[in-house]
Design brief:
By secondary structure, the chain is α+β, with helices and mostly antiparallel strands. Helices cover 28% and strands 25% of the residues. Strands 5, 6, 7, 8, 9, 10, 11, 14 and 15 form a 9-stranded antiparallel β-sheet that branches. It has a 5-stranded mixed β-sheet with strand order 17-18-19-21-20, sandwiched between helices. It has a 4-stranded mixed β-sheet with strand order 1-2-3-16, with helices on both faces. Strand 9 and strand 10 form a beta hairpin.
């Protein structure tokens, strides 16, 4: 792996031409708006904010770290491939080989350069952005990980769950039902035993990435990070909580979770593009220790109206997981899977298959819509033939509009897995939603007689692009 911490990563991204540095921006909405401008664009740059208004010169924020394929490949230590589907395949093959590796406990960390205890803690000492106009507060935790230990089973989870500053020594957090941190939190709430928690607000982007994808229950994310890196991930033991904390982190807190007098958390702009879960009273953390490196960097990744960073990188990763789960469920000849970034990498999925038998397309669609990686808060599943690139929205819509007769080819699944964030579900009915299964393949029974496609053969197009592409487009035409 080319980087050991966020600072190495920033330097490499800069050398790759993948980073912009801006000076003099305002934490109040300006950093958020700039992040929106860059994350709405495919392969937009990462942005490092320096000299933030009202804060010491070295205190920085990095946003949009993972939204380009090149930076995602850097972060995972993999080649970027030539196309989106290439990289989905590269990650799918790599994912199968990852074996969790136990962490290495170390004593030294630059986090110990600045340590604050009870009475000295001020969470407002960092240039935490107010990301969007209607947010209920300043969210220091967006590209962050919340660190919790299962009180019965003993294993530790790192989950990316948003964190809002309530007060100079109090923060709030939100975890959706079913997430690992939420299951653990509910065990503490039920037993009444003390619940200590740690949170890291800046670290290398691989830590964030792993904290925000579906690592299996019971597997500590730091062991999965070790597996991706091919070497143990270094952690320190938190002085207050005893929890394993990334040694390479920039800003970390430890504290006690309070269930009494819950505090209003939210609203916060969410990945669906709305304030769907509104604001609720939630448990909060009394901060007992604050550690930070000199000149600390917050890693920011605000969700919001798609396309956004969390859609770009998770479309690659989650599409590969769905593909893998479909194969494990015995669906043959899957040729590609893509979650559209405009659906927040969940709400719309396209699956390409080579049709082998009657019913193959429906089988593929139903399994894709209900397998673990695809089931939560989905909406539309489109199945296409293998001449369609599922990551190309124009291709997918052409297939839908030309190979799908709605009355025949659309089915609805009801009472599927949704959640509080689903904007179209009325607040009193949240929890379930429905799925549209759209068969946009050529009808199996008369596939051979289906009208031929009006275009030159692939060989002719490829040869022509090779000959003239540079002159016409300044590239070979591939993305
Ligand atoms: C930027 C970002 C913010 C997120 N915020 C939350 C959140 O506030 N609450 C939540 O439950 N999940 C949130 N998620 C999704 C979780 O990180 C994701 O479901 C992850 O798999 C949870 O970890 P777990 O599988 O260990 O529970 C967020 C993801 C990203 C990328
Ligand atoms: Mn987990």
């Amino acid at each position: 792996m080319e980087f050991q911490d966020l600072r190495d990563w920033i330097q490499i991204a800069d050398e790759m031409g993948e980073l912009k540095t801006l000076k003099g921006c305002d934490w109040n909405l300006e950093i958020g708006a700039i992040t929106e401008l860059v994350h709405h664009k495919e392969d937009g740059p990462a942005v490092l904010f320096e000299d933030i208004k009202g804060y010491p010169k070295g205190y920085r924020v990095l946003s949009n770290s993972l939204s380009s394929r090149k930076r995602l490949a850097l972060t995972l230590g993999l080649p970027p491939g030539e196309t989106k589907m290439d990289f989905v395949k590269i990650w799918k093959d790599n994912y199968k080989k990852i074996k969790p590796i136990p962490p290495k406990f170390v004593k030294k960390s630059p986090l110990f350069d600045n340590v604050y205890k009870d009475g000295e803690i001020d969470m407002f000492k960092f240039p935490t952005p107010k990301w969007h106009d209607k947010d209920g507060g300043r969210y220091i935790g967006t590209g962050s990980v919340d660190i919790t230990r299962d009180p019965d089973e003993g294993w530790v989870n790192y989950g990316t769950y948003r964190v809002m500053i309530h007060d100079k020594d109090k923060v709030g957090f939100y975890i959706s039902p079913g997430k690992h941190g939420r299951i653990q939190r509910e065990k503490y709430a039920a037993s009444g035993q003390p619940f200590k928690m740690a949170m890291s607000f800046g670290h290398d982007p691989l830590t964030f990435l792993v904290g925000s994808i579906e690592v299996p229950y019971g597997v500590p994310e730091y062991e999965f990070i070790g597996g991706v890196r091919g070497e143990p991930f270094e952690v320190i033991e938190g002085e207050y909580s005893g929890l394993p904390i990334p040694a390479n982190a920039e800003i970390v807190i430890e504290g006690d979770v309070h269930f009494d007098n819950p505090k209003v958390e939210g609203p916060f702009g969410e990945w669906t593009g709305y304030y769907g879960s509104a604001e609720r009273a939630e448990p909060w953390v009394q901060v007992k220790r604050l550690y930070h490196r000199n000149d600390p960097i917050i890693l920011g990744s605000p969700p919001g109206r798609p396309p956004a960073e969390l859609g770009w990188y998770r479309s690659y990763l989650r599409s590969a997981l769905i593909w893998d789960e479909m194969e494990k469920a015995g669906v043959p000849d899957v040729k590609g899977v893509w979650l559209t970034v405009s659906g927040g990498s969940r709400l719309m999925m396209c699956v390409a298959i080579k049709q082998r038998y009657p019913g193959h397309a429906k089988q593929a669609a139903v399994i894709a819509s209900q397998c673990h990686a695809g089931a939560y808060l989905g909406r539309f599943v489109v199945v296409v033939d293998d001449d369609i690139d599922p990551s190309n929205t124009d291709d997918m819509i052409w297939a839908m509009t030309s190979r799908c007769d709605p009355a025949e080819d659309i089915d609805i699944l009801r009472r599927c897995w949704s959640g509080p964030l689903d904007p179209i579900i009325h607040p009193t009915k949240k929890g379930f939603n429905s799925r549209a299964i759209i068969d946009a393949t050529r009808p199996y029974e008369w596939m051979k007689d289906f009208p031929p496609v009006a275009e030159s053969s692939k060989e002719v197009l490829d040869a022509t692009a090779k000959k003239w592409g540079q002159e016409l487009f300044g590239s070979n035409g591939k993305k």
